[in-house]
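for the record, two folds in this file. i put them one after another cuz i was lazy. first one right below, seq on top, structure tokens after. the second one comes after a little note so u can tell where it starts
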Amino acid sequence: MSVERQAQIEPLVQESLVHNTRVLINVQSLTASIFGVGAGILGLESYAGFLFYAGFSLITTALFFFLRVMSASLNLRRAGKSVNVFETSIYFRSPFEFWTGGLVNGLAGYILTWTLFFGLVRA
């Protein structure tokens, strides 16, 4: 079956893509603040703090992928649809947005809570 025909049979609904992106951004923003608390309490400074944020943000995205995206793809495959289990473009606009969008979206909250708790612990 051609790609155009498949898109006509099962179109991507824009509202669903926006909802999925919004849920992912909410999860990443919340966890970024929690990671900021952790980095502040641990007393991380400079590059160590930013590497802490980048590493845990990617871990959070990977967990979200395995628990939500991959499980939904497996359910579609069990239902008889031909779906690539590792494909994120079914649920999100692009793989780049899925994997790296949280790094930018949660950075301000991370820095805010990081510096707040760093100052509280060191005071």
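(here's the note) second protein begins now
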Amino acid sequence: MPTQNEYHVPRSYLKGQNLLVVLAEDGGYPQKVQDNKLRPIVDSVNPEANLKCANGKKIVAIDFASYGDTIGICGSFEEGKCSSSVKSLVENQCLGKVECSIPLSQVNQNTNCGSDVTKTLSIQAKCGH
């Protein structure tokens, strides 16, 4: 059974000349990934982050949640030079739930980032029983 069947790629990544590399576990078929199946997860009318656990699990921990110029990848996120923690907001809205949404309008967007810096909402959550 695969550990992940959906990949969420930020819209900003899809706009550039970026290379998407999909690493599959033993028995996976990365050659079957098709570009036409990629879709941004941010709705331009009402941007929000959507978290959902599989197999009836619930969100048991928020390991990282930040808005701004976060650096790193899942498992090793760090706040950038102009990021602000939104961990308590995400914990309040998501802990103990199978799925939740964090509207960007509820995130404190007062960072010291300039308008030329691309800001993202980065969240790392754990699912469990």
